[in-house]
Design a protein that fits this description.
Six copies of one chain form a homohexamer.
Chain A: E1 3-7, E2 11-15, E3 27-33, H1 35-45, E4 49-56, H2 60-71, E5 79-81, E6 88-92, E7 101-105, H3 121-125, E8 130-134, H4 136-139, H5 142-157, E9 161-165, H6 175-185, E10 191-193, H7 196-202, H8 215-225, E11 231-241, E12 244-253, E13 256-259, E14 263-265, H9 274-287, H10 292-306, H11 318-327
Parallel strand pairs in A: 1-4, 1-8, 2-6, 4-5, 8-9, 9-10, 10-11
Antiparallel strand pairs in A: 2-3, 6-7, 11-12, 12-13, 12-14
């Protein structure tokens, strides 16, 4: 089992039930989540030793975050309490042709307002196998751009592997600004979640034409640009409607390209955190030193299962995911 | 922006949740709606000045109707309070192969029992662009047959355009009785919602054979019979199951036939009011003097969106519908 | 109308809502059901005189069972009160690719612990047309293996027809043990629910190759082995996902094979009790002396409808099922 | 055990949850009830043989009524199906100083519109010990005034005892009209639920001054006026707020006056049906030939318990009520 | 009927159900409210012409605010759309000995960030009878301190009466800061909600000893200090527990002191907005030129009723309040 | 901060909502709890290092137990997974005069069936300050009687203090059997929760007459009998109804008797776990070496707060309890 630190923001999601609009909602479902927290919870469910580093206000919402993480066995030893508020966002559930709709209310959060690495970095990174970060954190503020770089450098000094999920959000920064920052980060990264869009717009690669499995080409280009990166991964998601997607996992590892089988997700219960469940599946495979094809199949199955439950995080164990992979779609055992 | 009056009955719908039968229900969802009220709400959401003329009892249910309409910005200046009861109906939600099932309990309602036009008709119709009525109102009573005709004549005197939705309901009157009444009304109508069934059974046209897009032919026949009508419109709905329909909007305007793209509605949250959302989309296009193809695409998109929310009325604004038309099915913007 | 006794265990099912896992559930839906009780309720809904014979604890849960059965008109004159507990099971609702997951907690129940036929068997079986049993009962204990045989013999002495649903559950006994017991029972059976799996593994028949409609062959073999059995029936279910199945009913009667039309069940609300609704449909056809094709169409429609409602039992009447068969999928009548 | 017929109207109650007003409700709780049905259910829970005679529409709501009654073991052999609608009423739950608020919508119901006694009266009253009626039924229509008298006369011919609950409702008829009708009925009554208000305003007795336990005096006067009546009973209810009442049961029997101990009901869950539970308790005591003090204590305890559960009817058994009487307020047994 | 403008912030309240803590909540009830908005809604329910002036973000939450106000007939002609966010706060429901607990998250809201009076003040104040403001608005920012003064001066120039609710909140500003600001405002105020605490700590009056009805003395002192103020009012609330309060309204008018009868509020459904309902009751009395005692009784009854419903605003009409005053606690009319 | 091990059974509680009976419930609330687990959670909320030792099945319900404990920071390092089932019990919520009603279904649970101390006792008890046990565990089986003694002896060898809550349950064993076992345990106990009933019936002491504060006398007798016990504690609970109790904490320490102030708990949300919250408060005081009066006030406040939240365990921190003690009943801070 590995020792992993994930560092990032965690927010309160307030969402409506299917068929109810935000402007007509009389109550909201409450879920706590964030990419790095979600990855951490999945890895804890896979029996790794996981620490989530973040900062939340010292009030009932901050305590709810702690309870949420602890309930899945994630250590909150490095969860700081302080600052003014927990970032929130409102989500109107999508269904059929109508996509989900999101209102962000995350500015001025305890985490976004951090200006120094308030953790004891020595303790935080001691004997850690992987530090997982995402492109959302440097997008939060100028301070965080610098802090993320500083954090990565300290981790490198402790021989910690860097896992980085580009996770570009157009509502947080421009492609230009994102590109500049991410290009500074990638030379230190070991495992990278990146897709075609990231390659084209953030990393400035050129569009490849003429091949169906076009991801191979982008992965090759990225590998050339960043030979330090051991593997690239992302999912290919076909959106038929808000309620039905197909999902294929892709992995570039050891200079080869791998794809999972196709998962038909219909109906989707909650797609938030689907990508994080995939990332956690990949990192689990790395920590367990599995074969590439095994890794990508497991990660994609983990992601597909996530879409069948409410909430941001995936509550499934390794045994449950493997038994799901063996059973076939919708088969019940009585 | 236009000024519109819609006049008709509004009822309380008591419906079960998916998978629950009426005979086993321990609670009911409450929604207020009626074709003309629903059209009014949509048009108010599209920023027109809308008045809903009706009559409801002077009790908490009547007041709930007022609050419902006001919440969407529909004026209830012409909503009368009096009479004995609010019409109700019970709806067992359909799902998959099992269709929804309805029990009407609308007899003796405050509106149905009206015997005179209790409104100050001068004030009601002053500077109004469109008066929207439906075939449900004359079906309610002998009095209402006469009152509808009277109402249309006064409107005509005020140079108000008449919008009429045939909306035939077999549980209210026979095809024969409906046909007689509607044929008296149509010579005064400017905009008419009518489909193939209306043409055949109500208006006594003959079935056309040999063409896929058979609606053209019916529209042509109707146009010939009622040259006063500026446009005809209706939707072509393919019912795959109670949970999945496809929808195409059709429009006959300026002696030409227009069809919208196909909307795949799967799953359907609530189909009640889908036709009213379409009608409102058409009337909006007329008031805004849009092109025919734009009108029918907008109206069909409005109708498709309605199917994704609970309740009888469509809560979507022009901006939301146009952004939906631009985005494609189920695409989320983060 | 016929007089029917169904005898078996009834349990409390505690299930989660879609998208909620057992380990994260804060409340459970409560439903009471069991194969024989479900068949009984359907037959009572079809206006037959039905008695359910079982044993439940003399506490609020036992009384809830009584109220459940009485509410559908099933007589509980032969429902015994005593013993220690009501068997329960927990069900995590499946959705999309993720199947439902079940935890049984049924050991030591009032019914399973029975060691004698505590009913007055004379009264129980007097003028009864059909006694319906299933393979679950003899699987519960050594005592019940003997009691089931004894029960069947008394019934035969009273010229009661025996309906038997093999209903093999791998969590209760091995195929070997089940096979030995069931082969002792079948020589006394008149109507038998059995599928390909039962033929192969329980009854030791050999696999047939080369024909699409392979059930014919198994039914022929079973008929040869047990010429006393008047008819065999089962459904062919194709599981696309936990949310979407197709269903075809099959029937072997008068040495001929019959199949129903195909029912597409999408989405499925609750599949528990789908087989029992089918069995009840078949037994209704027998009691009413319908044609074979009519019987299998009715039974399959009854089963398809059951999948659209929550709970273990089918609440549909003969009129509702026939009207459903006439209407076509999802068509609403207004 | 006795054999009892209760005859009257049953309605659908649509009520809000505490703190929600009718005009702002998005869903309603559904309960079925009516005085005579409630009395019948209690008596069935007390193990008597009970038949409820009424008429409901042949639709899902009528079938729900049947399931409701059957679930408590009340026979619906004499429940007629037909007519147009089920009477309904809306109830805004009261709390604290704010009383509950009710909107009746019961006109034109299947029962109210009856003009003949559609039951086979011979079968209905055969070997019946008690026929229970209330003053609500003759208030429904002129027809019902005559039918009630006719019904009572037939019952008398069959030596059936008449139980009559005056149950005056000012929203249904005037005190004058009620008084005239009820004075015709009382000479045939054996057991009568009547309070001070009934004595004063309906029966024209004069107000008695100078005694705290003033009910004695009214009972004495009533006894003198109607010597045929074996016993009178009613509750003295002190309304502190909508959430807290105290309740004392009173009984006039064998020319003596009896009172129960005081029940403090705080908080009240649902007061609808509290009087019916009391009546059923009295009738049970009569059927079981209990002592007067025992009867009134039991009936008042039954009524007090009713106030602790949602719904119109009392679900408590004799054992539960007696164990409640023995335990003292709020004591739990672990 | 009067014409009233209320101006202030409106927020989204996210609250838990009774017995659920914020840190363990899986969903939140959503209510929109703010002192000035609540006063406005009550006055609209009392049939006055009411405008609410505020600023909310142009997103679904802002639109929900609009729908909320419109549903009660408050005009949102002067509701501005813009800025970044809607202020929110989280409320853990109190019960029994445990008080409610609140987390404010209102900084940086669209309203709080305003730096100019963005309304067309001429239109806003034209022919307005009363402008209602509270001490919360100047507490929001330095800008708002100035804007409130400016607003009051413009109103005075238009001969609009100023209603001011001191409404001191220790979490927003210190007593010293509040006192300085409020002492600048009071010379322009016509109707003032102020209690003993306001007199002592904000206005620097000295504590009076020796009289039970001590409020008289404070009102006298305040009247001397601010002879321009026509009336002072506040409630005396005795908190027995979070679930039970007693409430007495007080009013100083025409140099005399008035008190309402005592309202026992037990249980309390939702105390938020109780003070605003009282203020609205007072303003209604002024607009209608009622007697002092009538005013304070009506206002206190309005406030007591508010405590019986969920949400920030009082949905009661004049008729409902008067009928409540006439009926007595918890009496139901059937 | 101290290090504490609590050892005992944890069960799933399935309970109804207020006003709903078990026999009519359509869903159940799910809570996990047990005396020793509840004490452990409270102590973890008070920032002590807590381990819960027990055994649960290796299925979703067992995993839910783990998540529940972890969410409050209790270590599940010593939670064993295995055996057949999780003990359950059903609870019908009490209200007003009607007490809660419980059906136990706990036999054959994974914990009850244990026959050896399966933990590594060295690791379990290493450097532990307090081991907390209750009288429920030896009541479960003959094996557990022996295992509890063995466990206590090993703890004593490790110089671990023994906390013992007598917690007599008449449904598990007789007073005679309990007395014999408990008298064997008490000579090893350091901190003992025991009340008058325990003194009289289990420990064979004689009833004391003539003194209001009779608990002093029993504590004195118990102290004489078991001079090894450092302190005795229990609550005096007056049950006014299921919804309203008063609570006083009592403590015998250093040969003196202490009582807390009176807490009025009205309404009670959930009384389950009230005693455990009190015990945890006492143990916290001991670990923190507080004064006796401080200890009993804190413990009683903790218990009173527990009654205001749903669920078996108390979620309150030291800060929250102390702030509650300072504030007074129902006072809110804005």
């Amino acid at each position: 089992m590995g020792k992993v630190v994930t560092l990032g923001e965690i927010m309160l999601r307030l969402s409506t039930e299917t068929g109810i609009r935000l402007s007509g909602a009389h109550h909201f479902q409450a879920h706590y989540g964030g990419g790095e927290a979600n990855v951490g919870i999945s890895l804890a469910n896979f029996a790794h030793e996981v620490y989530f580093a973040s900062k939340v206000p010292d009030n009932a919402l901050g305590h709810a975050v702690k309870r949420h993480l602890n309930s899945y066995g994630v250590s909150t030893k490095h969860l700081l309490f302080g600052g003014d508020r927990l970032g929130t966002y409102y989500m109107e559930a999508g269904v059929g042709e109508r996509a989900a709709s999101i209102i962000y209310d995350r500015a001025y959060s305890s985490f976004a307002e951090m200006t120094t690495l308030e953790w004891d970095m020595e303790t935080l990174l001691e004997e850690v196998d992987i530090l997982h970060l995402s492109g959302i954190t440097p997008a939060l503020s100028k301070s965080w751009k610098a802090l993320v770089m500083r954090c990565i450098q300290i981790a490198k000094n402790h021989e910690v592997k860097i896992s980085f999920d580009i996770n570009y959000r157009g509502k947080l920064w421009s492609q230009k600004e994102a590109g500049e920052t991410i290009r500074q980060i990638l030379p230190y990264v070991d495992f990278c979640s990146a897709g075609k869009m990231d390659a084209l717009y953030l990393l400035g690669m050129k569009e490849y034409k003429g091949n169906e499995d076009e991801l191979i080409d982008y992965y090759q280009q990225m590998q050339k640009a960043y030979p330090n990166i051991q593997l690239f991964y992302s999912t290919k998601r076909t959106v038929h409607s808000a309620s039905a997607h197909t999902l294929v996992g892709t992995l570039w590892m050891n200079e080869q390209y791998y794809e999972s089988c196709v998962h038909v997700m219909d109906p989707i219960v909650d797609r938030v955190g689907g990508g994080d469940a995939f990332s956690a599946g990949i990192l689990h495979g790395i920590l367990e030193e599995k074969e590439a094809q095994t890794i990508v199949e497991f990660a994609t199955a983990a992601s597909a299962l996530k879409h069948t439950v409410h909430g941001d995080c995936s509550p499934f164990s390794v045994e449950e995911i493997e038994s799901f992979m063996a059973a076939g779609s919708g088969k019940i055992d009585r």
